[in-house]
Amino acid sequence: MSKPDGALKERRLKDYKYLMEYQTRWNDNDQYAHLNNSVYNLLFDTIINKYLIEKCDLRPSDTGPSALAQPIALVIESHATFLRPLSFPSRIVLGMRVLKLGKSSVTYEVGVFGPLKEGNQRPAVVGGFTHVFVERDTRRPIKSMSSAVLEGLGGVLANDAPVPTRL
User: Fold this and answer.
1) Any idea where the domains of the chain sit in the sequence?
2) Gyration radius of the chain over CA positions
3) What is the pLDDT of residues 63-72, one digit of tens each?
4) Domain 6-154, architecture per CATH
5) What are phi and psi of 164, to 5 degrees?
6) How far is 55 from 98, CA to CA, in rounded Å?
7) Beta strand segments in 26-122, E
8) Whole-model pTM?
């Protein structure tokens, strides 16, 4: 049986279509002097939501009447495979892509690379999560994401990912 992280170790920065730099902070480290596992979930959430806001017309901080009609994205699954440790002080790069795009759900993959000064092209961590877009008040899945969201997410669809049914 092959190790599940074998293919993940082969990921390269060029495999990701959206990139974001991050400067680790002192309080990101845990008692073992490497980034705490919870920090990676924060990083995944940050790059994914930054992309949704910048490229998919998502406006999570809107509070007006139109905001109530907008669906929200809920995380239904998350994961991370740790390949090597990172720690403070380091500049790292996050890469994001979409692995699967459905009518109301999307699965993201995030690669964490660094430290930058060492030119690391192999990931330290590969993880991500799945969002389901739901009606804000009922929390039931929507029939279909808006064209702006589908087009935006289509822009970072992995080359080997299944093509969505409506784009």
Assistant:
1) 6-154
2) 17
3) 777 766 789 9
4) Roll (3.10)
5) -65, 155
6) 13
7) 72-82, 91-101, 105-113
8) 0.89
